[in-house]
UniProtKB/TrEMBL annotation:
A single GO molecular function term of this UniProt record: hydrolase activity, hydrolyzing O-glycosyl compounds
Gly residues compositional bias, start-end: 50-62
Protein name: DUF4982 domain-containing protein
BP terms from Gene Ontology: carbohydrate metabolic process
């Protein structure tokens, strides 16, 4: 079927019930361009400000970054030519959050409860041909998630038009069942549908092209399709000297299929695919094309920071680019299916994917979440995920769930088996996992374990604290519970039905299960960022452990403050999970919401063995001497800066990360001594000194010889405002965006991290401001405003092109000369 973008021409508004609307309470529609996040434009609600404002667990509380839920209504008028009469017309929505209901010309046309599934609406029976038609989409989001979801039509929409005899949507699937150095077999399966009343015979023309566009294989087959009975055309094509797809060499091929009859072309479809093999065993782990690959993984949510949940193709591509530059080779989309745009980017850039179906099954985690719809809809949502993923070589694992409490019960294991087998029936070329949290799997019996732990603690206190010490840290507690005999027994069936046992916060099982379950292959599907050095050592040591996924690779909206730095006070003797309003971000990403890498990212790159140079991070001097009491998701309160105005002569702690034998720290040329570093010292060392503006230099030594250095310099002199676009040329369509970083620097380009001020922007030419914001974790500023205060010297503007030509952005800030940048917009 012909696919045409359906993103333009929409209007949106908050919806009220019909009786309130009759009373004049309705809000006016305003023009929007899809993808669009209706929630991001809402006023955030402090606790106690309204009947629902204090909820900590739903979209209205800290889980959803204190954004209110609501019902949102979209509408669009579009013409349907008379010549479309007799053809099949469908509308495809890649994602509407949540409980989407679609009306065409006032009539109910379909719905989809799950906010992350693509779905089709058969439209032709509701349409008026030769005139304008109206489509209306309602979406509801209300205490239905543990993170910021956004709301509305937040992914792409498409108009599909085809003849009664046509290739079904997502009906072209390519596998590579045989791969040898000289030749690869590509099996192309095309699903042909016939909605006419006659038997139809068509020819199926298939071509495969390499990355340069050269035809490398072709075939023609004839297929007869009975009315109302879809038929599969299965063709085996042979590709000489195949270029294999891998993370280091992501070679892609294109497959094009045309249907023809005596009157000419009937329909056409295309797909991109890669040629690669997957294998698993407990000794060699995961192998891609015969080579063992350890997954250096990042868990990520779906929001795009200053854009909210709006899923623009360039936003997804940019995230994958930055994650790969930071040393990751795999992404786990948590905890819902990934967008098509991000899958395309992972294919092109060589990023492996664990695509996850659900965060809940039948046991609710929020008051009105997907558990209410799961029994009726899970099979259709699994089908949608697999149909979307099938041709993407980046996808290597399907995850059927995340931290599902039911995994500790027999009935839950039976449900897991049904899910896993459903996935396998649809796609037997990938593996199935489930991200199991052992502690949640035995939650019903956890109180008994705690009571027993308390009794043992009394005996262990005389021997240095016993279990009390290990339970003082929630990460230790999760590991202690997860490695218990109770969890081993209760999760055995849920793990046995999987190809890969996904484990959240349970590295204590890695060595244990090598003997207990010798055929079990393990993936650390979610781990604490502060434990990557020890976890990665286990991943490298054990063949049956295939990788580690940190929570999280990229910071996100909602679950506010789980990774924020906290300090002991008389009123707060232990860390709190949810931060108070106006906290906005989780604060636990290696990379902040603007795409800037934080110190944890460079530390991880060193642990992965992918960075030779040391890295310098400085703890905020205003907290020097205080006792840290953060969660295990929190990194140290550090900034890679030696600019601390007002703290001259104040004590400060400097962290140095390095895989070298030792490092030396020099302050303004004066050595502060050499310290051991490397794996035996957790790849880090610390120096206590006093802040003295100038130059801070770290030199790393391996076997006595210098192996790398890092330097920080204090910003001096007047503050300058600089503007820099991520690319000089973008395109007018396809979801492209321009990312423009505005920074405060000195004349030498050193960032003024201590000179934050409000920046105003104006966009002219062929573009509009799509989002504007910083990585400030706690703020009441809006992402849709034209003024925003910098955070640590930076703020990010995202501009959406409106057509070919050029975009000009002008930025101003108090005490600075205006900064200007231009971006060319190509056709």
């Amino acid at each position: 079927m012909i696919r045409v973008s359906f993103n333009d021409g929409w209007q949106a508004r908050p919806k009220v019930n019909p009786f309130a609307e009759l009373g004049g309470q309705s809000a006016p529609y305003r023009p929007v361009t899809v993808p669009h996040d209706a929630m991001l434009g809402q006023e955030r609600v402090p606790p106690g400000a309204g009947a629902e404002g204090g909820a900590e667990g739903g979209a209205e509380g800290g889980a959803g970054a204190y954004f209110p839920g609501g019902t949102f209504e979209y509408r669009k008028t579009f013409p349907v030519p008379e010549e479309y009469r007799g053809r099949r017309i469908a509308l495809e929505f890649e994602g509407v959050h949540r409980d989407a209901t679609v009306y065409i010309n006032g009539d109910y046309a379909g719905q989809r409860p799950f906010g992350y599934s693509q779905f089709l609406i058969d439209a032709d029976r509701f349409l008026r041909f030769g005139e304008d038609n109206e489509i209306r989409v309602e979406a509801r989001s209300h205490r239905d998630s543990r993170w910021y979801t956004g709301a509305g039509i937040y992914r792409d929409t498409w108009l599909l038009v085809g003849d009664p005899v046509r290739i079904a949507p997502d009906g072209l699937r390519v596998t590579t069942p045989g791969i040898e150095p000289e030749t690869a077999v590509a099996e192309v399966v095309t699903r042909v549908e016939n909605d006419s009343i006659a038997i139809r015979t068509v020819d199926v023309h298939t071509e495969i092209r390499d990355g340069a566009g050269t035809v490398v294989a072709s075939d023609v087959s004839r297929i007869t399709v009975l009315p109302g009975e879809p038929a599969l055309c299965r063709q085996r094509l042979y590709i000489d000297d195949p270029a294999l797809w891998s993370p280091d060499s992501p070679a892609l091929y294109g497959c094009g299929v045309r249907l023809t009859d005596d009157d000419g072309e009937v329909d056409a479809a295309t797909a991109r695919f890669g040629i690669r093999s997957l294998s698993l065993d407990p000794r060699r782990g995961l192998r891609i094309n015969g080579e063992t690959v350890k997954l250096r993984g990042a868990c990520v949510h779906h929001d795009n920071g200053v854009l909210g949940a709006a899923t623009f193709a360039r936003a997804e591509e940019r995230r994958v680019e930055i994650l790969k530059e930071a040393g990751f080779n795999a992404v786990r989309m948590s905890h819902h299916p990934m967008s098509r745009a991000m899958l395309d980017a992972c294919d092109r850039l060589g990023m492996l994917v664990v695509d996850e179906a659900f965060d809940v099954w039948t046991s609710a985690k929020s008051e009105f979440d997907y558990s209410l719809s799961f029994p009726e809809w899970w099979e259709r949502d699994i089908e949608a995920m697999v149909a979307k993923d099938f041709n993407h070589p980046s996808v290597i694992l399907y995850s059927i769930g995340n931290e599902i409490p039911e995994t500790g019960s027999a009935v839950g294991a039976a449900q897991g088996r049904a899910l896993a087998e459903k996935v396998r029936s649809l796609d037997g070329t990938r593996y199935v996992t489930n991200a199991v949290n052992g502690m949640l799997a035995v939650m019903a019996e956890l109180s008994k374990m705690r009571q027993s732990a308390g009794e043992k603690a009394a005996d262990g206190a005389q021997e240095g604290g016993g279990i009390n010490t290990s339970m003082a840290d929630p990460g230790d507690m999760m590991n202690a519970v997860s490695s218990s005999e109770l969890v081993s027994r209760r999760t055995a069936e849920s793990f046995a039905l999987l190809d890969v046992a996904g484990m959240n916060y349970a590295e204590s099982r890695y060595a244990l299960d090598k003997d207990l379950f010798p055929n079990r292959i393990i993936l650390g599907t979610e781990t604490f960022p502060t434990r990557i050095d020890g976890n990665w050592r286990l991943v490298q040591r054990y063949g049956h452990v295939i990788g580690d996924f940190t929570w999280t690779g990229w910071d996100y909206l909602g679950e506010v403050g789980i990774g924020r730095p906290q300090y002991l006070t008389p009123d707060a003797p232990r860390p709190a999970f949810v931060a108070p309003y106006p906290y906005l971000l989780a604060g636990c990403g290696d990379i902040d919401i603007t795409g800037h890498r934080r110190p944890a990212s460079y530390y991880r790159e060193i642990v992965f063995g992918r960075r030779a140079a040391p890295y310098l991070a400085v703890r905020r001097p205003e907290h020097h001497g205080r006792t840290v009491a953060s969660t295990p998701w929190a990194w140290s309160d550090t900034v890679s800066s030696w600019t601390w105005p007002g703290f001259e002569g104040a004590p400060v702690t400097v962290e140095v990360y390095s895989d070298a034998d030792e490092v030396e720290l020099l302050l303004n040329g004066r050595s502060l001594g050499r310290r051991p570093a490397g794996a035996d010292h957790r790849f880090r060392t610390e120096y206590d000194t006093v802040h003295e503006p100038g130059e801070l230099l770290a030199v790393a030594y391996r076997d006595g010889a210098e192996s790398g250095r890092a330097v920080l310099r204090s910003a001096t002199g007047p503050v300058l405002l600089r503007a820099e676009a991520d690319r000089p040329v973008i395109t007018a369509g396809g979801g492209d965006l321009a990312y423009i970083t505005l920074s405060l620097t000195d004349a030498a380009g050193t960032l003024h991290t201590g000179a934050d001020r409000t920046v105003s922007v104006e966009v002219g030419g062929d573009g509009v401001l799509a989002g504007f914001g910083s990585a400030d974790p706690s703020t009441e500023e809006r992402f849709d405003a034209k003024e925003r205060r910098t955070y640590q010297g930076r703020v990010l503007a995202v501009v959406r092109p409106t057509g070919p030509g050029g975009i000009r952005l002008t930025a101003t800030a108090a005490g600075c000369e205006p900064a200007e940048v231009t971006v060319t917009v190509a056709e």
